[in-house]
Structure formats: C-alpha cells, structure tokens
C-alpha cells in the first residue's frame, strides 16, 4: 500500500493548504494531507499508557478546580430556560475492533455485489457524551443539523457557555469513564460520519485515536461544518495520531488555554 504525504516547504505552501502559519512553530513540521491507503503507519492512542494516566490525573484536578464554575453554569441554565441542565448525546468513539477483519473492511467501505451503492459501517464504539445544555429543548427535530453562527436555537446563557467553552466541562467525566481523552480528535455522531464518509472516505481513520475534549484540529481550525473544513480537520487529526507524544499533548493544552481565553472558533 502507498500513502500520500508531503512536507511544507514555505509559509506560502502552508497557507495554500489551510495550515495556520504558527502551527509548525508550535507542533513541529506538519505533513497534511495524510490520507493513507495503508493504515498501518498510524499508531493508536489505545496503546499509550502514559495518556490514560495523564487523562485521569488532569481530569480529577480540573473537576476540583472548575466545580464552582460548573455549579454556577448549572444554576444559570436552570433559572433561565426550561429543561434539563445537562445534554446527552450518542457519539462514536475509539475503534476497538481495528485488528479484526470486519473492522478492516468497514474502514475502507464495502461495495454491494452488482451495485454501486456503498455500505457505510461505523467501527467505532458508541458512547454518551455529556455537556451543559446550550439550546432550547427539542432544538433538533427530524434530521440532525450542525450548529450555525447566530443559531436561533441557542439560548442567551448557552451562547456564553459556548463562547467560553464552559459547556464542555462535563466531558471530564467522560474522560474519567474512559470514553474520551483530554486531547484527541473531536467525536462526531454516526449520522454525520456516514454522510461525510461518502465524500471523504478516510474520515473514519480519525477513530484510530480516542476522541478528545480538545485537539490539534480544534485549536487550529475552530468549529467547522463545511466539506473543505472537514478535509482540513481530517488532515490535522491524522497528523496528531501520527505524532502522538506527551509533548504534543502539552503543546495542544497550552494552545487550548489561549483559544478559551480569546473565544476563537466558537459558535
């Protein structure tokens, strides 16, 4: 199997591929797009013992430090809008079946015999993600849709929680449960993975790492829901998986603090 990867030779080259100009200085040389036909070159975060230890330690510390903020957020939600404080939704997590034959076939897609119709299979493990509720109850009726700028479904308190990323704080419980990591590709819903995969077949390669509260794509690209943005997001996610190290996680966490303080990329 072959893979396609190229080095950024100049700032102009980086800009032409949607790479923020400060990214290489912070994380080292990046090599998007890392679209691989042979998946063996991508390691899996599942085998990184240091990452789990770091996740548990930092999540416990974070929950102790931000518990007053979480209490204030819960009170604000409860007193300003009807409905539950927390929002629960199924997302797709780490692919734990990567080594078996069925998962391997699912990762590259299946073709129905005598038909051009593609069979979409999600090899990742479903889990329930927890967030503070930022939209009105029943905001999503029928077909799932991503949040948009100035989305009327978002409550006034919810807009502030999204801007400051406070709505993400309950996900530290997901980290303690082992569903997520602090740093990793952002988890998506099965509906969107299946839809995106029709245009971007490699999108499921993101499932080679445990999903994260923050990640390389999140801090560099912010929120994105366009096809071009999702392709760039995939490039960053695969680059993160390829260079998975404690130092990379530390740099992303430092950049996350800047993103939270500035409100960059939030809807």
Q: Tell me, rounded to a whole number, the average pLDDT.
A: 78
Low-confidence segments, given as residue ranges, are 1-17, 32-39, 98-120
Q: What is the H/E order?
A: EHHEHEHEEEHHEHEHHH
Separate helix tally: 10
What order do the helices and strands come in, and which of them pair?
Blueprint: E1 3-4, H1 11-16, H2 23-27, E2 35-36, H3 49-80, E3 86-92, H4 101-108, E4 110-111, E5 118-119, E6 126-132, H5 156-164, H6 171-177, E7 181-183, H7 190-197, E8 212-214, H8 216-221, H9 227-242, H10 246-262
Parallel strand pairs: 7-8
Antiparallel strand pairs: 1-2, 3-6, 4-5
Task: Describe what you observe in this structure.
The chain is mostly helical. The chain has one domain. The chain has 10 helices and 8 strands. The strands form 4 sheets. The protein has a two-stranded antiparallel ribbon. Strands 3-6 form a two-stranded antiparallel ribbon. A two-stranded antiparallel ribbon has the order 4-5. Helix 3 packs antiparallel against helix 6. It is globular, with a radius of gyration of 19 Å. The protein starts with a strand and ends in a 5-residue tail after the last helix.
Identify the notable features of this structure and list them briefly:
267 residues, 10 helices
């Amino acid at each position: 199997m072959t893979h396609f990867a190229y080095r950024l030779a100049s700032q102009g080259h980086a800009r032409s591929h949607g790479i923020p100009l400060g990214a290489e200085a912070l994380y080292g040389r990046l090599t998007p797009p890392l679209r691989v036909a042979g998946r063996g070159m991508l390691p899996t975060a599942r085998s990184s013992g240091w990452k789990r230890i770091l996740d548990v330690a930092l999540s416990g510390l974070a929950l102790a430090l931000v518990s007053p903020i979480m209490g204030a957020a819960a009170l604000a939600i409860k007193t300003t809008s009807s409905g539950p404080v927390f929002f629960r939704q199924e997302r797709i997590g780490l692919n734990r079946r990567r080594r078996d034959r069925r998962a391997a076939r699912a990762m590259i897609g299946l073709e129905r015999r005598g038909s051009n119709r593609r069979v979409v299979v999600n090899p990742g493990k479903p889990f329930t993600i927890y967030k503070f509720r930022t939209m009105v109850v029943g905001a999503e009726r029928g077909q799932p849709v991503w949040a948009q700028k100035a989305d009327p479904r978002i409550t006034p308190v919810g807009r502030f929680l999204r801007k400051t990323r406070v709505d993400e704080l309950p996900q530290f419980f997901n980290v303690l449960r082992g569903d997520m990591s602090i740093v990793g590709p952002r988890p998506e819903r099965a509906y969107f993975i299946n839809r995106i995969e029709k245009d971007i077949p490699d999108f499921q390669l993101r499932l080679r790492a445990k999903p994260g509260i923050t990640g390389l794509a999140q801090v560099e690209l912010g929120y994105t829901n366009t096809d071009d943005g999702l392709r760039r997001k995939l490039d960053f996610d695969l680059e993160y998986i390829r260079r998975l190290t404690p130092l990379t996680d530390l740099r992303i966490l430092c950049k996350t603090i800047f993103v939270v303080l500035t409100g960059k990329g939030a809807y």
